[in-house]
Amino acid sequence: MPRPSRWMIRCSFVYLFLGILMGAMMLIHKAYFIHSAIWMLLPIHIEVTIFGWIIQLTLGTAYYMLPRFLEGPSRGDSRLAYVMIASLNLGIIFVIADSLLSFALPFDWIGRIFELAAVGLFVKLHWNRITTYRTS
Amino acid sequence: MPFVSRTFVKAGMIYFVLSLIAGLLLEIDAVSLPALMPLFWHMLMVGWITQIIFGVSIWMFPGRNREEGFVNQKWGWLTLILLNSGLVLRLIAEPALGYSEAQIWSVLLVGSAVLQVAGGTTYLIEMWPRIMSKKQQRKKRKRRRES
Q1: Would you call B134 an interface residue with chain A, using a CB distance cutoff of 8 Å?
Q2: What is the tens place of the pLDDT at every residue in A68-114?
Q3: Which of B33, B81, B97, B117 has the fewest Cβ atoms within 10 Å of its own Cβ atom?
Q4: What pTM did the predictor assign?
Q5: d(CA A10, CA B6)
Q6: How many residue pairs bridge chain A and chain B with CB atoms within 8 Å of each other?
């Protein structure tokens, strides 16, 4: 398994654990009152589980499993893959920060732009890997 | 495909159907069931998507123990049992809490949360050491053969 995939999959595991913990806290709060601010966790729970866990795991696994190039670097320019990882995770962190605190800058927008950049890089890295090795 | 993965995928398919039935009920104005919206989302995202990811990753990621049986696949089986029992408890307790204030439903809801956290933890115990490079994989295989 290549290093970018290992990083993405491990990050997704961390987000999975955080997402489950937040979900569990909100579920317990439905049964026994914990704190009135607990529902602030809902948008973070959604961001962490969808972008942090599911999307990140999918991208990391695709980078590992899709057909590789027969010439040159087998999975394309690995520097772009690292930029993709950084961009996706910065995006998630910016969106979460916007849910938690109020900033003068629109952190949710900045976060979504980082996430969009990560997905654009994912498409660039993988477009030509969607292929078959058969010649006929 | 190991037995535990097949069970994950089949359980996931059941939740997929149930979640879409819940989604359909949400569209019918005459039907008003408590907690239907969160149940719809969690059957879809936990019951179906997360469960199919768990099953396929246990099967496809490197470093899998190819021996069948509960002991050999204990973390996978524990994940399946804990996650599904947690989700089933939620499906029962959350709507019930909307109808009755009996203490039992609150206790069951807390139980559901604890079981799902435990299920996530056992999955991570199984999978975290399996995220490895080819070199680490070769070393692990060599160590296995030697022992």
Answers
A1: yes
A2: 999 899 999 999 999 999 999 999 999 999 999 888 889 999 999 99
A3: B33
A4: 0.94
A5: 24
A6: 68
B112/A27 CB distance under 8 A: yes
Kindly identify which residue of chain B lies nearest to residue A54, measuring between CA atoms.
Answer: B50
CA A92 – CA A10 distance, rounded (Å): 15
Q: Kindly state the tokens that stand for A57.
A: 């795991």
- The domain limits of chain A are 3-129
Q: How far is B28 from chain A, CA to nearest CA, in Å?
A: 25
Q: In angstroms, what separates the C-alpha of A90 from chain B's closest C-alpha?
A: 22
| Site of tokens 């993965």 | B5
Q: Taking the C-alpha atoms of A104, A109, A112 and A113 in order, what is their torsion angle to the nearest 10 degrees?
A: -100
Q: Which tens digits make up the pLDDT trace of B51-101?
A: 999 999 999 999 888 888 888 999 999 999 999 999 999 999 999 999 998
- Residue A79's Cβ-side half-sphere holds a number of Cα atoms within 13 Å equal to 0
Residue entry with tokens 């190039």: A69
What is the mean pLDDT of the segment spanning A21-27? 98
